[in-house]
Amino acid sequence: MLASSELIALVKSYDPEANADMLKKAYIFAMEAHGLQKRASGAPYFYHPAEVARILAELHMDVPTVVTGLLHDVLEDTNVSFEELEEIFGSEIAFLVEGVTKLSKINYTSAHARHAENFQKFILAVARDIRVLLVKLVDRLHNMRTLNYIEDPEKRRRISLETLNVYAPLAERIGLSIVRKEIEDIAFYNLHPNEYSIIAMKLEKIRNEDSDFIENTIAELNNILTKEGINATVSGREKEVYSIWKKMQKNNISVEQVNDITAFRIIVNSVKECYAVLGLIHTHFQIMPGRFKDYISIPKLNNYRSLHTTVLGPKKQPIEVQIRTKEMHKVAEEGVAAHWGYKSGNVLTSDKDIRAKKFVQDLVTVAQTSPNPEEAMNYSRLDMYDDEVFCFTPSGEVVTLPRGATVIDFAYWIHTDVGNTCIGVRVNGKMVPLKTVLRNGDQVDIISSPYQHPEVAWERFVVTGKAKSCIRKYIRSKEKAEFVALGLQLTQHVFAHSNVIFQEDAIDLRKFSCDKINQFYYNVGKGVISLGKIRELLPKVTGDKSSEFAVCITDFTPGIAVHFADCCHPILDDHVIGILVPEKGLVIHLASCAHICCDGQEHIQVKWNHDDYISRALVCHLRIVMLNKVGSFADVTEAISQSSGHITNLRVESRSDDFFELQVDVKVRSDEHLKDMLATLRSSQSVKNVKQL
Questions:
Q1: Under a CB-based contact definition with an 8 Å cutoff, are residues 52 and 142 in contact?
Q2: For residues 390 and 533, what is the distance between their CA atoms, to the nearest angstrom?
Q3: How many degrees, rounded to 5, is the angle at CA 105 between CA 101 and CA 109?
Q4: How far is Cα 171 from Cα 146, in angstroms, rounded to an integer?
Q5: Residue 164 DSSP symbol
Q6: Using CA atoms, how far apart are residues 3 and 27, in angstroms rounded to an integer?
Q7: Is residue 76 annotated as part of the catalytic site, yes or no?
Q8: Diameter of the chain by CA atoms?
Q9: Cα-atom radius of gyration of the chain, to the nearest Å?
Q10: What are the φ and ψ backbone dihedral angles of 661, each rounded to 5 degrees?
Q11: Which residues contact residue 224 at a Cβ distance below 8 angstroms, ignoring those fewer than 6 apart?
Q12: Mean pLDDT for each 10-residue chunk of the chain (693 residues)?
């Protein structure tokens, strides 16, 4: 077991001014606190925190972090209290230990709200100090190294599943690949021992068939670099079993078909030399098309920087070559920890380091805006697994998003307010629908309007947790008011059609199990209280016959309390009726819609108020048959643009030598607006036929 003097010497090797007394005090305190506790291996429990502290010191972490490694289990596994820890070691260390303890209590394989709530609290803690996450990842690393001592196979499986699904992606996001690779392989071995063994045996066979392959390739690469006067360090290795298995699953291939089982790394002194070496590699070896990636020019979200290329090596065997500087290599292995300012506490030392922390800040936004902890946990997980796509702002700033992200995700990445007010987007200079999926290299220009707000439909196509959370937050802020307002109008509708003068005081709230009138209206708007029930309990009030009362559709935001039916897509000024759907609200159909069911559904009289709705638009579906010729698409989109229409979606239904048939979703303000647009389209020489679906 690591002695206190050895730990102090290790920390002093990179921080001569380190507080040795603090380290020794924490070492003794933790050893005494854990006392006679044993690990599953039979070793003293203190062996574990001592090893965690050693690994943190090897990562050159500051003294408070190393001390936290020593103490990280005392709150959970001993009688030590937070107050005692704070009194002896100060508030900074007590806070770090408490943060690690909170994360230790989370069971990621359970959807129970208690675990999700812990996760939500932990993310907020990490926002204050990312060292909490670093300690927990190192704690998990050592636990995985000793996982074989746990006898219960189900417990090993649960721990491995947590590791693979949560901790490995977290390590990847902060660039701690030296931890990620090891815990992934151990977890994979415990989850899929047969697959692991088969791949490992095949790798051994490949290795034995050419035992000198790596050594000979390194020698040839060194020879090429030496002739050009480039001083470099060259190393080679086989990729991890789990990494190879993922590639096999993704491409549905065998181990023998994996092209780049072997990876070689060339470490040089400058960025200029990186590109010079790349040129030499491509000059001496045949490149494999489509396998070059420049992460120096466009770093990954976790600040990983390197050149990757795959070539046919000395024996025409595919090899991956990674080229980077010494500094880039340190960041690639250690991530945020590589630039940790051990003399400056928890202050990261450069903008690049802070960039690596951005994903945590986005998780914080999710945690803060999600009242439901399970929702926060689910949204947070969305950003952990996908590959990345790199896009640019008009000023050239790189924006890194999960693959599959849309322009709305991009807008929310810039800022919550930019996402909330996004009204249009130009991608590479051209206007595109808001659900457009981004591709590598796209330049995105967001157009905002103070009169715009998030739409309910956005949540169906955004992919990042931050975007989903912000959209849901807006919807929640509007939901109660919208359902209360709808409930009021529906109640007035019932009174009017029952020939009863509307009097709010006449409603007996007790009969509807409501304490306040707004609660009553909310339940009516949600369809929890049926209109028939209100009608049955109306007081017998006499008076003149009430005038007809129609619910005004245009008082409501589409998609919250009032919905426009997907089957018939009514637009402003259409002849429509409303149907109250429990737990959803009022659904508006064309009066002629064939999908309306009369059984058990009350048709509610509704109306439009054109003046109140003049700035809003509803989606209309068009089928356009256009000529198959150069420029036809441009003519169609130009005609819609001239009519002040906004395309939200476009799909090619069929294609022949002569014609294209398109389905186009367009936002229109009214029936008159639609008629003008149809007339403009029909006047185009590229359009053969157009009609509303």
A1: yes
A2: 56
A3: 145
A4: 19
A5: I
A6: 9
A7: yes
A8: 105
A9: 32
A10: -115, 120
A11: 280, 281, 284
A12: 92 92 95 92 93 94 94 93 94 90 62 50 62 90 94 91 82 83 94 91 81 89 93 90 85 75 92 94 90 86 86 85 93 73 45 51 60 54 59 82 90 92 88 86 87 85 87 87 92 87 87 92 92 81 63 84 84 83 89 73 80 60 87 84 77 83 81 83 87 79
| Catalytic-role residue among 77, 238, 240, 676 | 77
What SS3 class is residue 56?
helix
Q: Three-state SS for 592?
A: coil
In this prediction the pTM is 0.59
Q: Could you identify the residue written with the tokens 């408070």?
A: 64
Dihedral of the CA atoms 211, 213, 218, 221 (nearest 10)? 160
Total residue length of the chain: 693
**At 57, phi and psi to the nearest 5?**
-65, -35
DSSP, residue by residue, 474-539: HHHHHHHHHHHHHHHHHHHHHHHHTT----GGG--GGGGT-SSHHHHHHHHHTTSS-HHHHHHT--
Helices (H), 113-261: 113-128, 131-145, 153-162, 168-173, 177-191, 193-209, 213-227, 241-251
Find where tokens 């490995």 sit: 168
Residue 183's φ and ψ, nearest 5 degrees, are -70, -30
Cα–Cα distance measured from residue 556 to residue 353, given in angstroms and rounded to the nearest whole number: 45
Whole-angstrom CA distances from 689 to 9, 626, 672 are: 82, 7, 19
DSSP string, 9-46: HHHHHH-TT--HHHHHHHHHHHHHHHTT-B-TTSSBTT
Tell the residue number behind the tokens 């590229």, with chain if given. 686
Q: Is 583 a catalytic residue?
A: no
Distance CA 396, CA 410 (A): 14
Q: How many CA atoms lie within 13 A of 629 on its CB side?
A: 8
> How many helices and strands in the chain, by DSSP H and E?
27, 21
Q: Which amino acid is present at 562? A: V
All residues at 6 or more sequence positions from 551 whose CB lies less than 8 Å from its CB, including other chains: 486, 489, 490, 493, 578, 586, 604, 605, 606, 607
Please give the single-letter amino acid code of residue 590.
L
Residues 137, 100: contact at Cβ < 8 Å? Answer: no
Set 6, 15, 32, 76: catalytic member: 76
Query: How many C-beta atoms surround the C-beta of residue 71 within 10 A?
Result: 29
